[in-house]
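G., the chain you wanted modeled:
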Amino acid sequence: MLAVLSGGGTAGHINPAIALSEELVGRGWDVRFAGTPTGVEARLVEQAGIPFTSFEARGFDRAHPLTLPKALAVIQKSTRLARAWFDEVRPDVVVGFGGYVCIPVARAAEQRGIPVVVHEQNSVMGMANRYLAKRAAAVCLTYERAAEALSADARSHVVVTGNPVRTSVLEATRFEGRVAFGVPGDALMLLVTGGSLGARHLNQAVVGRKEMLLSHPDLHVVHVTGPKELDAVTEALALSPEEEGRWHLMGFTDRMGEAMAAADAIVSRAGATSLAEISARALPALLVPFPHATEDHQTMNARSCVEAGAAFMVADAEIDGPAFESALRVLVGDADVRGRMAEAARAQKAQDAAALLADAVERAAGRGATGGRG
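Predicted structure as tokens:
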């Protein structure tokens, strides 16, 4: 059996695809990936060892209608190319994770009678996924509320699977993480991350609580600032040599799985991949949603964790005030609260998402050419 996975634009579309690939390969499937030639997917998929085929895709600016004909022309050309590629490789199913490249790939699949599965990572469906869900054999969601954007027909094909997490995150150990980041085994560790591009306001808020955090004598802070923010954060913290032993600064890490395994708590934005990994690791969290995310989807993402009892949430506009410091004090100072949050996260069974999504993919593939609704 062969699955073609497709997605592009952000790591949030690619990481769950890689996690699904790991699960499918473990079940004896072959997997290939279709993405754009210059997007982040080309690098991440190659690093994961998945065969990669590229197709051009572009979006359009609603404020400039003349960009639409060019975008449609690119999609039509890529659809023809994808159709010819499918005639060669003959996939059993296509899985789209979001991004414009999914549109020509999924349209080609529909035209060849190949079932299409859509996976949405966020609580608000992206444009490409909303379009593809109309004719998909299965619509797999991380958050049930994302189905509100779908027609009644599409909602009948919804499966809530959660957001798959890579094996490297799930299998990392606390010991490995503590060694990797130079944190003693018996210390309390707070992980701070603003996502792959960093988060200036979040960094500033944490820096402003330096004295409060370091007043906990056994606390170590592992702070991933984002590459562009490292110099500014280093200057603002002005750590003494002694403080540098407990405040571990870095612009970027490709060992986030080990960092989460080592941590006792985390301060983070609320992107889909971050939340999936935090939940899968049952990591007590203080979430600060990025306020400019499309349709404020990070706030809705985070709300699900808060309602489950697995996290605190403070709005970005409030992190300079007392609410953020109060939540941070409890997070690092109250082991009972952290324990309850961890139990609530484990009850969500986020670590099962890859298997649940693979089950849905296998069911769709089993329908063969008659499974689609197109």
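The longest strand covers residues 30-35.

Shout if anything looks off.
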